[in-house]
Amino acid sequence: MNSLVLYGNRLSGHSYKIRLALVLGKVAHQYRNVALSTPRAARPAEFRAASRWDEVPALVVDGVAMVQSNAILQWLAESQGVLAGQPGERQALREWLSWESNRIGLSLPNLRYARRFESQPAAVEAWLEQRCRADLDVLDAQLATQDYLLAGGLSVADLSASAYLWWAADAGIDLQAWPQVGAWLARIAAQPGWQHPDALMAPEN
């Protein structure tokens, strides 16, 4: 059996998507919270050794470190069979993971950061909000035809694309404008073992 240690942070949706995949996939692991308010040089040595760019998440599997959330999700799907989709869906899974990293995984976290933690110029926030709304339109259209991003059912693509949406209100985004997205989130939240990131990523976990 593999020995897995996940380094993450309670406010990081990128960390959350990995921990949620491990929990829903019933993969035994240790979770260690990293305080990102701590200067990089003062962060725990074991985390710095595991995280190539001093970022969360980092997953250490039998002493081998992996970084970048969607790359980790792809490894979990392809190597461990965690929410991997159906046979024949591997390329679609990769495409959604790549889409997320460039679209909703960029727009929403940065908009949330600007509106909750550190304000940005008005033009920057406006651009991020416009992009986020366009990304939600894409998700809503996809989810109007099927329950999850892949036709075969829940996959790591859903965990990736939804990770920051649980904090949409922090970004000033009202998801009622995207009813299919709201219904999709409700289906994800109904999965046995699911927890909101505020609970699942708490330091005491």
UniProtKB/TrEMBL annotation:
Gene3D superfamilies named among the record's database cross-references: 1.20.1050.10, Glutaredoxin (3.40.30.10)
Domain GST N-terminal: 2-84
Species of the source: Vogesella alkaliphila
Name of the featured protein: Glutathione S-transferase
Domain GST C-terminal: 86-205
InterPro entries: Glutathione-S-Trfase_C-like (IPR010987), Glutathione-S-Trfase_C_sf (IPR036282), Glutathione_S-Trfase (IPR040079), Glutathione_S-Trfase_N (IPR004045), GST_C (IPR004046), Thioredoxin-like_sf (IPR036249)
